[in-house]
Amino acid sequence: EVQLVESGGGLVQPGGSLRLSCAASGFTFTTFAMGWVRQAPGKGLECVSAISGSGGDTYYADSVKGRFTISRDNSKNTLYLQMNSLTAEDTAVYYCAKYTSLYPTYNWFDPWGQGALVTVSS
Amino acid sequence: EIVMTQSPPTLSVSPGERATLSCRASQSVSSNLAWYQQRPGQAPRLLIYGASTRATGIPARFSGSGSGTEFTLTISSLQSEDFAVYYCQQYNKWPSWTFGQGTKVEIK
Predict the structure, then answer these.
(1) Mind listing the pLDDT tens digit for each residue in A49-100?
(2) pLDDT in the model for residue A105
(3) Mean of the per-residue pLDDT values for chain B?
(4) Which residues in chain B are closer than 8 Å to A44, comparing Cβ atoms?
(5) CB A105 within 8 Å of CB B94
(6) What is the C-alpha separation between B44 and B87, in angstroms, rounded?
């Protein structure tokens, strides 16, 4: 069974940093692209970042470009999202999600992790 | 950016009735469209991909149709566990995948 377990969420002050982790199991991690999708309280879904199976290709939404960095450690089956210069607009549940092939092009998310809440507030 | 517009925002349906949800893309996404279900307090779950292919384990009462810019998700006979928010997502335009704003299916 595929499992994705996020960790690292919490309360952070504006301008601060946080690193999310997503531990993956139940599949060959290196052969699938991965992504982060966030959902602000009471709002819809936004694709924040994606990374190919090898880690060589990455994508960022304009809203986080230059502030967030996605990475993966294929030896540890773990996906990361380093978030810097956080603002209140970054407050959201962050979901880790698996794509269905090596690259995220023409691909959908299946499955999703349970999510990690990030709250940016003073 | 491709804008995905879902309608209606809220759909009130009685158990056992049929629900029809719509999703429109601002430009053609071919058949590169997925539907997700999100129950309260849970993560989204894949229902449909390729506009009309049910994901593994999804009941046959869920069906998807459409291509280009107009898409439909139909739930043929609503069960209690189907009351949730449904999102469409286009994955045609790399690297900008976009979601619709969601349709909440509530009990009438």
Answers:
(1) 999 999 999 999 999 999 999 999 999 999 999 999 999 999 999 999 999 9
(2) 84
(3) 95
(4) 87, 99-102
(5) yes
(6) 9
Q: Does A106 touch chain B (CB under 8 A)?
A: yes
A93, HSE (Cβ side, Cα atoms, 13 Å)? 16
Q: Is A41 exposed, middle or buried (0-12, 13-18, 19+ CB in 10 A)?
A: exposed
CB A65 within 8 A of CB A55: no
B46:A44 CB<8 A: no
Sort strands B70-75 and A78-83 into parallel, antiparallel or unpaired.
Answer: unpaired
DSSP state for residue A58 in the 8-state scheme: E
Q: Is the sign of the CA dihedral B51, B53, B59, B64 positive or negative?
A: positive
Interchain CB distance below 8 Å, B46 and A105? no
Q: How far apart are CA A56 and CA B39, in angstroms?
A: 34
Residue of A44, A107, A115 with shortest CB distance to B99: A44
Tell me whether residue B57 is exposed, middle or buried, using C-beta atoms within 10 angstroms of its C-beta: 0 to 12, 13 to 18, 19 or more.
Answer: exposed
